[in-house]
Amino acid sequence: DVTKANLAVTGVTAVNRTYDSTTVATLGGSAAVTALGLDSVSVSGTGAGAFANPNAGVAKPVTVSGFSLSGPDATNYNVLQPAGVTADISPAALTLAAASDTRTYDGTVNSSGAVGISGLFGSDSVTGATQSFASKNVLGANLSTLQVNAGYTVNDGNGGGNYLVSTNTAPGTINPAPLTVGIADVSRVYDGGTSAVATPTVTSGSLFASDTLTGGTFAFTDRHVGTGKTVNVSGVVVNDGNGGNNYTLTQAPNTNSTIIVRPMSTWTGAALDGLWSTPGNWDALPDASNVLAVTLPAAASAIYDLASTTFLQNLTSAGSLAIAAGKINIAGSLNTAGYNHTGGVLEGAGALVVNNSFAQTGGSINLGGPVTVNQAAGNLVVGAITASSIDLTANAGTIGQNAALVTAGLLTAHSQSGVSLTNPANQFSAFHGGATSAGNIDLVNTVALDLQDADVANGNITIVSNGGVSTSGPVAANGGTLSLTSNSPLTIGSSGVSANGNIVLAATNLTSAGNMVLNGNVSSSTGAVTLNAAGTLTQNGAVNGPTGISATSGGATTFGPSATVSGTPVTYVAAGSPVTPPSPPAPAPGPAPAPTPAPTPAPVPAPAPTPAPAPAPAPTPTPAPAPAPTPAPAPAPAPAPAPAPTPAPAPAPAAAPVVDSIVAILNNDTLTRAVSRAEIQEVIQQVDNTVTQFVALLVKEEAKQEAKAEEKKKKEEEKDKETAAVSADQCKK
Known about the structure:
By secondary structure, the protein is mainly β. The protein is built from 3 helices and 62 strands. Helices cover 9% and strands 44% of the residues. Strand 61 and strand 62 form a beta hairpin.
């Protein structure tokens, strides 16, 4: 066998290069081969070079591949790739540059600037590179030097040997730190003075490192109570090792000091003028925010006359408080036996409770909490009140107003003799109230209203609301009329509404769609009911109006399964066209099933037989002729049963009983009297005014009575036959 000869590729070199994190080697030279003898062989293919690793180094071996042989005699040789090829990989330049930084003095050389890194290849990285100022002191704009700190690490897999690292500095600035000096935590109870005793303290900013403060004088700017009070500061020196230049010092009023609120101020009335503003009337004058709470004893009668605002947590008065000017701001509660408001404002997030007497002829009450007023004697008249809820009671009089009431919550008004709250600017979201004696409820409201309860013992209820009205509880005008007008939707809840007199419900579309929904009963005991809906009308309950029902809607009128009407006349009009009203109340059709069981009719024939037997015995006397042996007369008694035809007259009287029976069935009553034409007409109305239905009932009842009469006739004929047979036997004897 002849084996192939090895033929080496020569003339190939590798090019020196700089580190780039790869193993690629660039080849140079000219690849060639020298064949044996006269063989014709040449080099083909493209050679590729690769370092064993990417790290920097000198005369690093390069592995060459990719060459092949070609030519007529190439198949006689094994190609040997170039060997002994080397090249250098030089370290790459890596620059770490400090970044320019500007910051405020903090007593250190720290810099938050990020060191700039350039020249990395592949996944190589630098960790722990930081920078700092050369000096901690304030030197001026761009006069500080930033430098790269030692301690960084080049992560290149070669201990950093793949890079030549250089660092650069940068100019920077340390600005003076702002420092405000005042009195730390000075705190004392309100006493009318301004002095403050304390040591210097930093109220804004910080002292850094070993810097200190010395000296200083301090004083409050006014006598009033408050947290964050202003205190004048002067004469403070900063010791920072740089002549104080590391700080911008402000010896400004300190807002962190406090004059504590006096827990309680009590009225003494020693000045004898009754004025709040007179210091002699107090153990400590409660003005501004200087006192937390105020107490007025039972004998006190204080008039608030300050032009400014007094802020209080609570005010408790066993006597009388009058507000004539300025403002009292209550955060908690004002609880007083007597209250007289002629001017000024009672405001705040708190509540007002008046236990005995109340008068408001001026000023306003504007509270975030509830207002509760109990007028022990006489009428209650309120003025401008805004609160989370308003509760008014006048158990011995009426409730009225001279200005608007505003609450997003519940307005409660309970009186003896009526409630009249008709200011056109009233705004209350819910109402609950009534009158225990003769008196009306008159309300005017401008927002949507939840009518939770309105009840008068003997009077009218009239309510007008620009917003929608919905009832969530009973509304009853006992002894009077009821009028509810909503300029938006009107919804009657399941508790319904009632009145002794007329009821008028109206839903206009002045503010939104004037739809009306009746989910409860609308019932007048003696009057008429009028329903006016600018939009649609939905009736899901009973409407009772003895003297008439009139319902008009601008849109569709629909009836739920429980809708009924009771009264006459009844008129429903929807979008200008008549609408068939609902049926009469369930009670009328309801009883009908009771009589239908026919147990009642069963006893009815019983009375009929009673008279019938009376004529029947008549034939019995006919046996008297029987003694006259003339048997012919005996048969004559047989015709006596002809009284049986007397049932034929029954059809004539049947007309009245038939109608009576129908009436009795419809009224669930026992027939004990004659029935009038008017009553029959009423029966016709009770079957939806449909004569056809009435006639059908008549025919049905007539058929029943005829069947009973026929059965009765048969029984009487059988009885007559039996009687005749007995008579014949007697004659034979």
